[in-house]
Each structure stands twice: as structure tokens, then as C-alpha cells.
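Quick one - first record:
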Amino acid sequence: MALVVFACAYFLYGRWLVRTWGIDPAAKTPAVAFEDGQDFSPASRFTVFSHQFSSITGAGPVTGPIIAAMFGWAPALLWILVGGVFFGAVQDFAALYASVKNKGKSMGMLIETYVGKTGRRMFLLFCWLFTLLVIAAFADIIANTFNGFLKDGTQNVPGAQAATISMLYIFVAMGFGVYISKCKPSGVRKFLIAVVLVIAMFAVGMQYPLFFDAQAWRYVVFAYCFIASILPMWLLMEPRDYLSAFLLLGMVAGGVVGVVVAAPTINMPAFVGFTVDGKSLFPILFITIACGAVSGFHSLVSSGTSSKAIASESDMLPVGYGAMLVECMLGVVALVIACAAASNGALPAGTPFQIFAGSISSFFQMFGLPAGVSACVITMCVSALGMTTIDSVARIGRMSFQELFSPSEGERVSGMQALAMNKYVSTILTLVFSYLLCLAGYMNIWPLFGAANQLLSALVLISLAVFLRTTGRKGWMLYVPMTFMFIVTMSALVLSVYGIAGKLSAGTFVFMIDGIQLILAVALMILAILVVKHCGRELFGKSEQPNLQA
């Protein structure tokens, strides 16, 4: 059913959006017009799709639906279908569309164009703070995935093997990027070489696992983030995402085929209740299932990196709208797997990734893949979900920090501004603050990350509505999503602040964990309200900006 819904959404609703907003396949895109070998680098449709899909498909589409299954499979499935089609995919496509139509500008710079300077700075500060949360959370997830030792001291072979393969991915991707740049291979040749490289990396990685503890891998991950943030897109991120896409798409395809062939019995009720274990369906469901339905982070990828690689406007629909629907399909697979693994209406013990990995691994074994190889493949897929996200976020965080201090048109650059805009300085500051947050641990960061992520979606949607209105395009299809997401996420943040305040009164408050979360939560809420105020004035009041065309 989900496949039919998503296919219809793409060919009907997606194409309707294209006709409504208008694209020009013959237009010169920012990637072509401003190609600089660094951030602007035109690429093939599948290469950009690979980058978009690999970057946005993090831990969310797996963890979110599995956790949300505690309310029953029906609410979770409905939100993935409705949210994915009418909220998430529309947001991702609209952000990509707006950026491509505006010289590849990021969301922050778009807000300056259509809302004003103050709105831009507040939004960019919000984005930068948000990227700190993402980097911190995913760095901790990746480090623990690569951890070569279990809690009892025994070796974690699949994790160590995945670590080796991931390190190989970095260096092989750079060589692959140089080859593509210099030799300009055909699509078929590039595909065949990529398949051979992936198989070779798995063969070497499984033979030579790297056994280091989680802390060592945290250092490695942050070093990788620094490199990925400053190197040209064509040299590392684009080829790495291209290679990773085969792995991730294979995982999605394997999951879909496995579910169809195995036809597992759903052991969870359709609906458990509006309150489960003290958690309310509203707003918890809608912030728990984030990347699987709608995620503000996706818009940063669409406008921050993907828009600078689009070679033709006709590529925007499959990259922006299509990639999100594929991710939604992964969310559906994760939900089915979790509910099938349930017993007596209760989810099995273990983390969402453990539940997901165990079931997908059994599917692969059903197709004849040995258990050891299957475990390595799934662990590598999990790490790829994180690695392909964290490198994009590090780059976006660096760019957000630079844009936060960049002067508006006609303004002079001061010495401090020039220092803050330096890509090395901005990258280091972004990663240092992210590392400090990472010390709090993934589980302490994730709740705040989820709420901030969805709040970012609300801010992006209202900003895009302003863009559409100002340029004379229809934007009414964004009004319900932006209003709903703002109400949901502000409610979640208020509950988060209330919970932290409860710890303070109970004497269990820890500043380095709860204090930092409290400061960030309050700061994000204030910034969000101010951004909405400025955007709302442009959207529903008399615009202070001149009528613009894009």
C-alpha cells in the first residue's frame, strides 16, 4: 500500500507542484553558472539524488517509527504517509526549488532576500545551534557503532569491520572523485566501477577489522567532519554519497522485498492509546517520527548543498521530492519490522537499530547471504546512515556560521567578520561546540534534537510560503503543514523545559547535561518566535520587501 501511495504522490502531486510553480529545464542552474570547484559543482541526476538521499537518511527513519510504534502501528503509518507526501517531500522540494531559483542561496540567505536582514540572522543562528545538536548526536551514534568492544570487554567484530569499511569509503571516495573529475566516465562505467569498489571495500574491511574504543572513534569522526567541511564537494562528499547510495538503496530494497516475501504477522495493535507509559501521542508521535515524515534538517541539505549541484531544473523533482519518498519507504519498512517482532502487543527489547538490524539481517540470510556477512552489511548500513549525514551537517554548520557574520549587499567587511567567515575558523568553532555537546551522550541530546528539528521545519515552511507569495506563486499548500508543525514543536519544547525544571526542583539537575539543554531549548523557542513574527508580517501583512521574481 505504501509503495502505491508514494508512487501516486510522486507522479500526481509532485508533478502538479512542478506545473504550479514552474521549472525551466533549459535554464542555467547555479551549479553551472557559478561553478567554482568547491561548493558549486554540477553533477548528474543520480549523483545529486545520491547526495540528497544519503545526507537526509540518517537515524531518524529507522529509530522514529520503531519508537512511535508504542502508540500502535496505525498512527505511525498514517503520519509517515500523510506527513511524507504533504509535509516532508513538499518542504524538501520547495527548499531545493527556492534555492535553485535564487542563485543557490541557503535558507538563511533566502530569508534575507524575502523577509529581511534581522530574520536572516535569527534563522541562521537557529540553524547553527541546530547543527551542533545534529553533529553531537550522530557523532556519538557512529562512535558507538564503530566501538570494537562490547560492554563485557569482548570484541564487537561487525562494528570493527564496519569501521574499516567506513574509513576505506573516505579514501576510496576521494580517489573516485578525482577519477570522475579527470576522466568524465559514462554513467554505466561509473556505476560498474562503483559496484566493484563497494564489493572490494567490504572484502578488505571484513578481513581487517579495526578494534578501537568509542572515544577514539569520536576523535576520528570529528576529524572526518573537519575534512568533509572544507574539501570541495566533488572530491569527497559527492563521490562518497554516490558510493553510499548503493548500500542504502540496497538496504531499502532488501527490506521491502523481505517484507513482501516473508509476509510477517503484525503483533502490535493498530492503536494502543493516546497516552502510553506517561507519554502523550500529541505531540510525541510527530516529533519522534521526524526524518521518516518531515524534517527541517532536510531543507538545509536541499538549499545548502544539493542546490549547488543540480545541473538541470528538471532534476529537482526526483532529488527533492523523490528522495524524501524513498526515505519514507524506509520508515514504513522499519515500522513493519518492529511490529512484526513485537510480542503480546509490546515491542522487543533492544535499541531501535538492534531491532531493525536483526530483522533485515534475517531477510538477507533468507536470500542466501551468510550470517557474518549479513551482520557486517547491516552494521555498515547503520554507520553509513550516520556518516553521510554528519559530513553534510558539518558543512552546513560551517556555512551557516559564515553566513551569520557575512555582510549584506553594500556593507563593508570588518576584521572580526572576516575572521568568523574564514572556513577553517568557522569549521573549528562549529566542531568544538558540537564535541562539548557530544560528551553529554546521544540519549541526552536526541529528545531536544527531535523537537528542534521539527521546529526548524515549521520555520522553513513559513519562509518558503513567503518566497512563493512574494514571487507570485501559489503557496497555500504550505499553510497547514507550517501551522501544524509550529504548534507541535513548540508544545514539545515547552514539555521539555517543564521536564528539565522538574529535575531542578527534585535536585537531580546536572548542568552539563540538563543545563545546556535548557539553555538551548529556551534559545531555540525565542529565536523561532522571532523568526515567525518577521515571516508572518511578510506573509499575512503588508510586505516590507519589494515584489521579487525568481
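second record:
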Amino acid sequence: MEYNYDTTNLLSKKINDNTITATLYLAAQKNIMHAPMYGIEYDNKKINLSKVNLCKKSTNGCVAACIYHNGLFQNSHFSKNKIKQARIKRTFKFLLQKNEFFEKLIKEIKSLKRKAKKENLRLLIQLNKTSDILWEKEEFEYKEESYKNIMEFFPDVEFFDYTKYDILKNRKKLPQNYTLIYSRAGMNKGKLIDSWEDLKAYLNKNISIALVCSYDIKNELLNNETYDDYNIYDAADYESGKISIKNSTEGSILLHEAKKGTNINKNSAFVIQTQEDISNYLV
């Protein structure tokens, strides 16, 4: 039996005066396990949901604060939560109908390229909005041709993602048009995953890092152009194409804001909330 995992679109897009930013939302972490609650059918002989984890390096703090669990329809009934239903369907399509998934992804990116060219806009693609997949290793076939990854198919399109994988060890060989930004993890099970020295090791290798902060701390840090001599920016400005972090000898620091209502695991140190947090984790 062939299951229908089609959704209206794979990519969500935002358009401003100079950039189209298209993002892919999948079922974060192990949330595909909830498929039956959303009325989504699947063949349990082809997939073991308990073994699927799209964020293998996730920590207690990022799981709690993840945008997948926060925001629109956060508390709505399963059957009415169309957003999460669509994310789970896209995930099944990626896992079980891979070539069809990439065929649709290619069609959508081609359409966005045409729009960007027509309106003289920059195009940015983020595939890991709610996941941490190694897209550089995701091979597929399209029209009887094999491709190493989607970046190879679109060498003139800019892709970017945040990741908690150790980029220096696990993701060294990246396509030229794929920018990875290390996402600070904080504490996990009582252990600090990434000290300031660890983060500086990325920055000194021209790999940018991302931090999640409270509103007040984010604005305080952005009052200066640098932190510890590294350029510091609002991550929203990068994602919307207002700034570029390329063509630099060092990485930059990108600040995300933990929006009001975000679930925060205070013991995880994932969200920098106070001056004490800065002293403990960014010095």
C-alpha cells in the first residue's frame, strides 16, 4: 500500500525587500512517534518510529525551547493541529519516499529561483529549521541522474543551517554553497557541552556560532558591534539576508531571542538569561 504524505508545500517562505528565505519544517527530535495521534498511517514494517530521531545531538535545553513545541497551535487538539500534521507528513515523505521528496523540493526551489531572479532578490534556503539532518550526505536520484546532495543540484543557491554536530570533526567536507553555524548546546545531563573556549575554537576557524538569549541580554549584547573581539549580529538579520557572515577571517556570533512564552529549562543553561550566565558560560 502506498501512503499519501503530500502537503501543499515543503518549504515555507518569507520575503523582504532584498531576500527570499525558504525554510523546511520537519518533525523535530523523535516527534514522528506521535503520528498515530494525528491520524497519520504508515507501514510499521518499513519504519520503526522509535528509532527515528532527526535531532540526534539535541540537549535538554534545546528540546524544551524548540520552536517545534512553541508558538502557533502549541496546545491545540491533535486532530486540529494542521501545522504539526504537515510536519510529520513531510518527515514520512523524506524518510520513505525520498526521491519523490527531492523531486518536490527541486520543483519548489526552481520556482523560488525564478521569483528571485524576476524580482532581483537574494535566495536563502534553510532545510533544518526543526531538524539536524546531515543534508550534505543525503543522496537522491532525479530524472535518472544521481546527486550527492541538493546543494550539488543547485550550486548557485545559498543554503544554510544551524547544527549541534561538531563541525570540525563530523562535518568538515561541505559543499561550497552550504554554510553551517554551530548552535550552542549549554548543559546536558549536568555536563557543560560547550565552554567559551570550545566556542572560540569554532570562531577562530571561521565557523560562526549561534546563541539563544533572553530579550534583555540579546539587546544588551547587541549594543556593541563585537563581543570578545568577534563580530556579533542579530540572527534574524542574517536569516533575512540583511547581513552576510562570509568573507571574514573569523566566525561571527549570531544571537537568537527566546520569544515570550518559550519553555525554558533553567538547569540547562541553553538560554543565556542573566549577567551571571554570561560570566559562567561566555567568559
